[in-house]
Amino acid sequence: MDVAFVSHIASGHVRICNADAVTNAPIHVGDSFPAEDGYCQRIIDERIPYLIPDTANVPEVAKLTCTQAMPVGSHLSVPLRLSDGSVYGTFCCFSYVPNHTLNQRDLQMMLAFAELAAAQIEAQIRIEERARDVTARISRIIEQDDLTMAYQPIYQLNNNQVVGVESLARFPDSPSDWFAEAAEAGLGIELEMTAVRSALRGLRYLPRDIYLAVNVSPDAILSGAVERTLRDATPGRILLEVTEHAHVNDYSGLLQALKPLRGGVRIAVDDAGAGFSGLKHILEIEPDIIKLDLTLTRGIDQDPAREALATALVTFANKTGSQIVAEGIETAAELEVLRQLKVSFGQGYWLARPMPLSAAAQFLMAH
């Protein structure tokens, strides 16, 4: 056969989704035409046979304009049925001249191909439906500019004083990774900035000697969105936590984008020890603060390897003028080891859980 294609039929129109041909095809991906002008709807309605070795012998198709225009000498087509029984379209092939060798074996092969193709199409439909749902959910959050934020206290470990809070976005259906889904939908930066703006609105209710840590990705910094969002932020009260999980292709561009932020805000490398680029991230960014990921903190009192790596990072921080914040402190034993290692700051459930803004403001005033 000279041409093969997959069609989708909806609202009385046929759209060509995939096409292949041994020569220049008379149809192309994206072509659309009324269903009654071609074979596809007739195949689905069973007005014409699936197997037509010679179109001249089937009056219903011989009279169609497309039969002569393409031309179509022989035709083999079957419906594409999804698992719920609905018809997506057709899987077709044709030759420019009659082909009397076509038989039931060829038809059975086409039916088998159609079943495989329908399974692939249905899987893609599910992916697209999920993507549309994700985009709609995230777009609503962004348009309303109304995220729920929680604030987790950050302590100076040598005197148990609260020095700052990290803002953490809270979403409905929290098991979903909203930021990852937003990035896949092309809305990652917009959602990040929505979270930053929501966190900044809470800053006015926090004591003036408490700093606010906000999380941003390298992509958000490179886009200029972070600089625009923080343009009017109170100098000295913002800690910008740059995630280490994302791969950075353009460190020179990232450093250039961070330049106008330095001085007004402090820079932290978040999740150190757990992300993509390891120590390179720390070396390139030259952060004010290095945040130990909770995977390093958790069980540090029972694991010499974790303790050794934390010790190395503390030594590095001391030599470069940085400070260490340990995340995820959940036991008294973990806290004691971190104090012995001279880790400057820490946060975690053992010290204080994330809390709503009103509760955080009262907690900080009391401390």
Question: Can you put this structure into words, describing what you see?
Answer:
A hairpin with a 4-residue loop joins strand 7 (about 150-155) and strand 8. This protein has helices spanning about 40-45, 60, 65-70, 105-145, 180-185, 190-205, 220, 225-230, 250-260, 280-285, 295, 305-320, 330-340, 355-365; strands at about 5-10, 15-20, 30-35, 50, 75-80, 85-95, 150-155, 160-170, 210-215, 240, 265-270, 290, 325, 345, 355. The chain is elongated. Helix content is about 40%, strand content about 25%. The model has no long low-confidence stretch (mean pLDDT about 90). The strands form 2 sheets. The protein has an 8-stranded mixed beta barrel with strand order 7-8-9-10-11-12-13-14, surrounded by 4 helices. The chain has a 6-stranded antiparallel beta sheet with strand order 3-2-1-6-5-4. The chain is built from 14 helices and 15 strands. The protein starts with a strand and ends with a helix. It has 2 domains: about 5-120, GAF domain (Beta-Lactamase); about 135-140 and about 145-365, Alpha-Beta Barrel (TIM Barrel). With about 375 residues, it is of the alpha/beta class. About 35% of the residues are buried.
